[in-house]
Amino acid sequence: MQNKIGSQAFVNKTLNENNLHAKKKFGQNFLTDQNILNQIVEASDLDRDTAVIEIGPGLGSLTERLCENAGFVLAYEIDTQLIPILHKNLARFTNYEVVNEDILKVDINKDISEKLGKFKKIHLVANLPYYITTPIILNLLSQTKKIQKYIMMMQLEVCDRICGKPKTKDYNALSVVIQYRAMAKKVCKVPRSVFIPQPNVDSAVVKLQLYEVAKYKAKDEQFFFEFIRECFTQRRKTLINNLSNKYDKNKVLQILKEINLNPAIRSEELTIEQFIYIADRLK
Fold first, then answer.
1. Is the Cβ–Cβ distance between 206 and 187 less than 8 Å?
2. What is the DSSP letter of 76?
């Protein structure tokens, strides 16, 4: 039976009946494609021992499927007007809670301990607002290690950067920071035509699997992440030129020589291991 909450007709009907519209300030775009919803749930690796954190449940099209497949769903919805609609659409479920808060302002570790304490597996599933996608991901990754998997819809361009590999145009500071902590994989591309309202860009679903045992370890992680930002300050410049504004140029040249790297190398050509070595030596 087709999931009615996720259908285009249902979304239009619900918005009209409640005199609602998608709010740009919250980055709202309601997904209406059943196949994409299926792919998101499948990629989420859910069972009854898994609790899901959802960001921006909207009208509940994805939330409904998460409730069907997971042990519990903790959904953060910033739009107060959508809360009663969510409860109405999810009336047949008891394994969920909607929190009317901004995900960037919550103490996620406290919420996980208090609300999801009995679950060993915590996965995050979200259709992220485009304008704050990166802050949400980086904020959660820096705050908690309790979320093992992230399955997120985002702007295609951001997905490509997160999954970017060295010596490609998509590889940048975000690629390094994310892949330092997790394996990143694009699940599927999502055309702009399957949203109400239709955004100006295509989207993609990305899956992050956090390393159970750290694959990379910088001596000082805060210093390392600040260093990475400096490395990619201006993409057209060489690594040494980007770093010379903040670090001793001769010292950087000496380190590059130690690992047989060309002084004219650009940041997008370096591996994460090489970035860590340079950062550790600079520190």
1. yes
2. E
- Cross-strand partners of 73: 52, 96
Q: Which helix (H) or strand (E) holds 131?
A: none
Contact partners, residue 135, CB within 8 Å, separation at least 6: 104
d(CA 159, CA 153): 8
DSSP state of 193: G
In single-letter form, the type of residue at position 221 comes to E
What DSSP assignment string belongs to 55-71?
A: E--TTSHHHHHHHHHSS
Q: What is the DSSP letter of 167?
A: T
3-state helix, strand, coil in the chain (%, to 5): 45, 20, 40
What residues contact 102, with CB distance under 8 A and at least 6 apart? 76, 78
CA distance 26 to 77: 10
For residue 152, count other CB atoms closer than 10 A to its CB.
Answer: 23
Predicted TM-score of the model (pTM): 0.92
Residue 60 pLDDT > 80: yes
Query: Does 42 score more than 90 pLDDT?
Result: yes
Would the pLDDT of 76 be above 80? yes
Provide the pLDDT confidence category of residue 14 given band limits of 50, 70 and 90.
Answer: confident
Q: What is the CA radius of gyration of the chain?
A: 21
Element containing residue 111 per DSSP (H, E):
helix 108-115
Name the percent of the chain lying above pLDDT 90. 83
Cα within 13 Å of Cα(164), Cβ side = 26
Q: Is the pLDDT of residue 39 over 70?
A: yes
